[in-house]
């Protein structure tokens, strides 16, 4: 019986489903799904000997919950950088959401807003702690931004609810970013 590093397997599956499905000869549908059997074949062809049960166990053991299995298909919830935009179901966000970043990026964000950068959507968190955890992945002094999500939503910015307190959105103009208790429109919250 071979020993599987489920953390490394999760990273590889994320790479295949988020960033380079073509390198694994995978074709994602419009919601990012691929047959579980196709993923197994793709991984085996890359020398990663796994079966469907191994992939299911990887998803079950993952603390970060980045993947979903349903009806013998698998997808990455978020984080896609592929050319074809993954379609998401729009949802009404809570009043505030949070975004972790670094102090060196703050002035630019306050000028142009939050952009998806090399991803398809802006990543937001339902609480400050999760945003801080995400923001710490970047080098530099941590800054957690508060976003007036409900107001942005009411002004036609689209939001999409994912798992584990993660929200995605289309670009968020700086006027919805609250600093020192005041949003960029100078209205207090």
UniProtKB/TrEMBL annotation:
<protein>
    <recommendedName>
        <fullName>Probable RNA 2'-phosphotransferase</fullName>
        <ecNumber>2.7.1.-</ecNumber>
    </recommendedName>
</protein>
<dbReference type="Pfam" id="PF01885">
    <property type="entry name" value="PTS_2-RNA"/>
</dbReference>
<dbReference type="InterPro" id="IPR022928">
    <property type="entry name" value="RNA_2'-PTrans_KptA"/>
</dbReference>
<dbReference type="GO" id="GO:0006388">
    <property type="term" value="P:tRNA splicing, via endonucleolytic cleavage and ligation"/>
</dbReference>
<keyword id="KW-0808">Transferase</keyword>
<dbReference type="InterPro" id="IPR042081">
    <property type="entry name" value="RNA_2'-PTrans_C"/>
</dbReference>
<comment type="similarity">
    <text>Belongs to the KptA/TPT1 family.</text>
</comment>
<comment type="function">
    <text>Removes the 2'-phosphate from RNA via an intermediate in which the phosphate is ADP-ribosylated by NAD followed by a presumed transesterification to release the RNA and generate ADP-ribose 1''-2''-cyclic phosphate (APPR&gt;P). May function as an ADP-ribosylase.</text>
</comment>
<dbReference type="InterPro" id="IPR042080">
    <property type="entry name" value="RNA_2'-PTrans_N"/>
</dbReference>
<keyword id="KW-0520">NAD</keyword>
<dbReference type="GO" id="GO:0003950">
    <property type="term" value="F:NAD+ poly-ADP-ribosyltransferase activity"/>
</dbReference>
<dbReference type="GO" id="GO:0000215">
    <property type="term" value="F:tRNA 2'-phosphotransferase activity"/>
</dbReference>
<dbReference type="InterPro" id="IPR002745">
    <property type="entry name" value="Ptrans_KptA/Tpt1"/>
</dbReference>
């Amino acid at each position: 019986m071979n020993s599987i590093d489920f953390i490394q397997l999760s990273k590889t599956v994320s790479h295949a489903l988020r960033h380079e499905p073509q390198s694994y000869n995978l074709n994602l549908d419009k919601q990012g799904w691929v047959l579980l059997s196709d993923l197994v074949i793709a991984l085996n062809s890359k020398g990663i000997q796994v079966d469907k049960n191994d992939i299911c166990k990887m998803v079950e053991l993952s603390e970060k919950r980045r993947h979903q299995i349903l009806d013998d298909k698998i997808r990455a919830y978020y984080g896609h950088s592929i050319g074809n935009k993954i379609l998401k179901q729009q949802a009404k966000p809570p009043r505030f959401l949070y975004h972790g970043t670094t102090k060196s990026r703050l002035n630019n964000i306050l000028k142009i807003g939050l952009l998806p950068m090399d991803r398809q959507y802006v990543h937001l968190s339902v609480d400050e702690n999760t945003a801080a955890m995400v923001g710490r992945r970047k080098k530099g002094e941590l800054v957690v931004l508060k976003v007036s999500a409900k107001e942005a939503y009411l002004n036609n910015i689209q939001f999409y609810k994912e798992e584990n307190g993660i929200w995605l959105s289309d670009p968020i103009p700086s006027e919805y970013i609250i600093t020192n208790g005041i949003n960029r429109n100078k209205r207090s919250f």
